[in-house]
Automatic annotation (TrEMBL):
InterPro entries: MutT-like (IPR047127), MutY_C (IPR029119), Nudix_hydrolase (IPR020476), NUDIX_hydrolase-like_dom_sf (IPR015797), NUDIX_hydrolase_CS (IPR020084), NUDIX_hydrolase_dom (IPR000086). CDD domains: NUDIX_MutT_NudA_like (cd03425). GO terms for biological process: DNA repair; DNA replication. This is 8-oxo-dGTP diphosphatase. One of its GO terms (molecular function) is 8-oxo-7,8-dihydrodeoxyguanosine triphosphate pyrophosphatase activity. The keyword Metal-binding applies.
């Protein structure tokens, strides 16, 4: 089975809310809410990949020392096995905006379970609740 490595980020605002983005129509798992991030390119390390993805998707600049690893998900989809480290980030430059026509939502950690999310994202919620509270 193919192993797919993607990185994700829990951007946390001053009110301890977490940003989630909605997968746009035309992509797999369209309509589901997820943490921003994406696939690593060949030879890319996770942190630079996440910095690149956050700039491309949300128009923000993140420095590598502002990313802290929190947890990871390991999930077997029918076509591949997904390994996804989740980083937290509380500091960035710029204003978060949707550059890829995806909906954005700031959510309290305890409310994340109320959203329809990909199965690989669901195990990432409890560590966020432990860190930030509900």
């Amino acid at each position: 089975m193919k192993l797919l490595l993607v990185v994700a980020c829990a951007l946390i605002d001053a009110d301890n809310r977490v940003l989630v983005t909605q997968r746009p129509q035309g992509k797999s798992l369209a309509g589901l809410w997820e943490f921003p991030g994406g696939k690593l390119e060949s030879g890319e390390r996770p942190e630079p990949a996440l910095i690149r993805e956050l700039a491309e998707e949300l128009g923000i600049t993140v420095k590598e020392d502002c990313l802290a690893p929190l947890t990871f998900a390991s999930y077997a989809y029918p076509e591949f096995h997904l390994l996804m480290p989740l980083y937290i980030c509380r500091r960035w430059e710029g204003t978060v905006s949707s550059l890829e026509n995806q909906a954005l939502k700031w959510v309290r950690p305890g409310k994340l379970r109320e959203l329809s999310m990909p199965p690989a994202d669901e195990p990432l919620i409890p560590p966020l609740i432990d860190l930030l509270g509900a």
